[in-house]
Structure formats: structure tokens, C-alpha cells
Amino acid sequence: MTNNKKGFTLIELLIVVVIIGILAAIAIPKFANTKEKAYVASMKSDLRNLITAQEAYFSDNNSSYASALTNLGTNYKASSGVTVTIGTVTNTGWDATAKHNATAKTCKISVGGASTAEGEPICT
């Protein structure tokens, strides 16, 4: 009489489950970091778009920058979840801050000021 059993043993199945668990534990933090990078990229993009809107406003309004986002009208709209705030505005420049509701990071930009990173968003 031949004993012909087919299938996996309990030990083999447990080893496969453990290997899948280890791979998931490695991959999940990498995906969380990817989301954070996407939020920061969104804030940087909004600040760069604000530069374009401010320059259009400057050109149309007797060489003065907009002191609030509402002054820009339909020329500028921030991405979903991003809050952009215009800070100090002078005749020669302005600065702004962007925050996303899903991250603690904040991005800032300065145009026409004494900043060393002129026109480049800096995130902390």
C-alpha cells in the first residue's frame, strides 16, 4: 500500500507567512516616507506657482506685489490640503509659507529679500 499525500506541511506554511511578514515590515515604512515626500513636493510646487502669480500681479499692478492670496484672484490656487500664507511684502520682494495638513513640515520661500536661497523653497 502506497502512502501518497500531497500538500504543504504546517511548518512550510508558517515559514512562508513569516517571510511575507518580514518583507511587509521592511516595505511599509518606505511607503510612509514616500507619502511625506509627496506632501513636501506639493508644497514646493505651490510656492513656485505663487512666484508666477506674484510676478503677473506685479506686472499688472504698478510694480507692487500682492499682500494676500485673495488679491491674486483666480491666478493662484493652492493644492488640496496645502495652506499658503503670504508674509512680509515690500516694494522689492515678499516671502511666503506653505503647510500641509498631513505633515509637520513647513516650506518657506523668499523673493527679492536678503535670503541666501532666492526664489527656492526651503522645507524644514
Any overview of this molecule?
Helix content is 41%, strand content 19%. With 124 residues, it is α+β, with helices and mostly antiparallel strands. Strand 2 and strand 3 form a beta hairpin.
Mean pLDDT: 91
Strand segment tally: 4
Oligomer: single chain
Given the helix and strand composition, which structural class is it? alpha+beta
Percent helix: 40-55%
Instruction: Enumerate how many helices there are, as a single number.
Output: 1
Shape: rod-shaped
Tell me the series of helices and strands, N- to C-terminal.
Answer: HEEEE
Tally of individual domains: 1
User: How far is the first residue's CA from the last residue's CA?
Assistant: 73 Å
Biggest pleated sheet = 4 strands, antiparallel
Arrangement of strands in the largest sheet: 1-2-3-4
Radius of gyration (CA) equals: 26 Å
How would you describe this structure in keywords?
alpha+beta, 41% helix, 124 residues
